[in-house]
Amino acid sequence: WVQEEAPDVLCLQETKCAAAAVPAELRELPGLPHQFWSSAKDRPGYSGVGLLARTQPLDVTYGIGEWPKNGQNRPKNGAKFPSLFVVCAYVPNAGRGLARLEPRLRFDAAFLRFLRALDARKPVLLCGDLNVAHGEIDLCHPKANRASAGFTPQEREGFTKLLDSGFVDSFRHLYPEARGAFTFWTYLGAARARNVGWRLDYAVVSRRLLGALCDCKIRNGVQGSDHCPITALLAV
């Protein structure tokens, strides 16, 4: 599928694989020779992300500087290209019973500061599993999940603050009324076959990139995970 899609940049989250153990079929993907992998230092593969690029980035950074201090949840790779930053993010989950909600909210605030600092230098494309369904339209059963991780008022407000800071949810901008447009389905209860899902994966762009935004597609026919890929198309 990756070879057919032929992306200029491929962002992967929750790789569950330390950099040294990345399989050969990924290392040798045609057209994506520049690869940057990272995960928590003390737990190889934990919260892992990978950014693969067709052309060599001008610079690549890891983490968001101020968070976290202990290296437990290192969520992003950031690549600087001539016309924009591409940030690959795997945002922390609030956890079962919302046990990690407060750390998640602290992360959201720190991440927003980081993105705003990048945006002050150059436009940003943020890709990844952001672990939040922003609106009721973004999950199948909103009423039953108001106290569930990924749909609490606090997490949704965090995403609203991101949008209010000069960023745009590209899919919802292009398809404001699209229903059943999900990117995650639990493995339980044949949820994917019944399309009982959540939209947790995003391509968020700096508002000034809207003129370059051509499309954002949810590739829900692609199997192999409890998430499906999304594709952002920009003329930059």
From TrEMBL:
Entry keyword annotation includes Metal-binding: yes
Compartments (UniProt record): Nucleus; Cytoplasm; Mitochondrion
PANTHER family: AP ENDONUCLEASE, DNA-(APURINIC OR APYRIMIDINIC SITE) ENDONUCLEASE
Organism: Calcarius ornatus (Chestnut-collared longspur)
Active-site residues, as the UniProt record annotates them: Y90, D129 (proton donor/acceptor), H227 (proton acceptor)
Protein name: DNA repair nuclease/redox regulator APEX1
GO MF annotations in UniProt: DNA binding; DNA-(apurinic or apyrimidinic site) endonuclease activity; double-stranded DNA 3'-5' DNA exonuclease activity; lyase activity; metal ion binding; phosphoric diester hydrolase activity
InterPro entries xref list: AP_endonuc_1, AP_endonuclease_F1_BS, AP_endonuclease_F1_CS, Endo/exonu/phosph_ase_sf, Endo/exonuclease/phosphatase
Main location: nucleus
Taxonomy of the source species: Eukaryota, Metazoa, Chordata, Craniata, Vertebrata
Gene Ontology CC entries for this record: mitochondrion; nucleus
SUPFAM superfamilies cross-referenced by the UniProt entry: DNase I-like (SSF56219)
Residues covered by the Endonuclease/exonuclease/phosphatase domain: 1-227
Alphabetical UniProt keywords: Cytoplasm, DNA damage, DNA repair, DNA-binding, Endonuclease, Hydrolase, Lyase, Magnesium, Manganese, Metal-binding, Mitochondrion, Nuclease, Nucleus
Cofactor binding annotation: Probably binds two magnesium or manganese ions per subunit.
Function as written in the Swiss-Prot or TrEMBL entry: Initiates repair of AP sites in DNA by catalyzing hydrolytic incision of the phosphodiester backbone immediately adjacent to the damage, generating a single-strand break with 5'-deoxyribose phosphate and 3'-hydroxyl ends.
